[in-house]
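Lecture 7 notes: from sequence to structure.
We start with the chain below.
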Amino acid sequence: MSYLRGQVVELTTTDVAHGGWCVARPDDGPVVFIRHALPGERVLARVTDVTSRLARAEAVEILAASPDRVAPPCPYAGPGGCGGCDWQHASLPAQRSLKAIVVRQQLRRLAGIDRDVEVEALPGDQDTGAPQGEGPGAGGTRPDGHGAGLGWRTKVEFAVREDGVAGLRAHRSHEVIEIGECLIAHPAINDLAVTGRQWPGLSSVEALVAPASGERAVIVSGGRGARTTGRSEAIEQIAAETVLRSSGPRHQRLAPVRGRGYLSQHAAGRDWRVSAGAFWQVHPAAADTLTSTVLAGLQAQPGDAALDLYCGVGLFAGALAPVVGPGGTVIGVEASEAAVRDARHNLREWPWARVHRGDVAAVLRRGGLPAARLAVADPPRSGLAREVIEYLTAAGNGASRLAYVSCDPATLARDIGLLVARGWTLDGLRAFDAFPMTHHVECVAVLVPAP
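Predicted structure tokens for the same chain:
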């Protein structure tokens, strides 16, 4: 049997797959990947895409529901709606269980490692004992009035339609869905009312908040061929302390419209300068949790040398520097010019911590770095470059413990497999639900040379 786009078929799901899908394997047709379903459910699914090997679909009616199913708190988290959330229809414990299964699947398939995985809730998102299916997210209500798993996202990029309306994109689509309020966005972002304003001539409006200080920034990007000075009624009226206009290829250049261009974020017991265009974890509790996990995994000692690859604004380097002390060395490597400026500012009190600007693979290839017993890497979603893996596992470079921070279990498992093939072993793995309601999961893997 072959499927046609738009066709509605009855299917029973068997398992979860990476990306927020459930899988159905009908006897008379290709495998079907289904959104808005849960494992073990019988559904009516509308086919949205067909290839030579598989079909994609979305569940439009649930005929036999999983006991883990709850009512999505957001009215746009369903078929034909916003593509930002994948699992609002599952209880929070079920979401974490599904993510744990995906991490384990990827490790088994790509690294040849069979390992139990638990996905841990971050502080603020623990279940509070509310009965399943009651309250936003079926996880109880936090003291701030938001359900567990909601109100956490401190950075949201809104797409802007040709008519100037801001919203969020549909799944695998350029269509912009007018959503009103985003329930996973931090309250301070929703208070900016980006979706309630007109943004003529723009293609996107990105909103950011530093939860500890309450500072907010907005980055506006012009549409293709649009000529904008960065000034409009919406920009003038929006209550963000900092507003910037992006330009250039991939909108990487930022020019201030008003404000100082950076936020003051708080983690690991101190403040960090973070430029509006630089990377910072989007869950308020993620930076603290990941820093303590990395430090525990690396077991740094006074006098150690450590590499912080893809170091961003220097979070892990800044946590390692006081531990290794003046007898040690911390070297950060980062490609982003803005992040390097921030990192050098953030690390200025530790002269033994330095930051090199450049592509990580190119900097390592250039040589001249000291041998380092410890390394931490927090690469983009694409994972480690092959040259980075070769450098870390080369005997002359001295690495004996690596903390690998990843938001993509597939590229993490791929790279663990490559490291294992070069004589390393997985010593520890923790996974965190740093992106509730979505399919994303943050992992910290600790690897050491095999004995």
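Points to note: The longest strand covers residues 54-64. DSSP finds nine helices and 22 strands in the chain.
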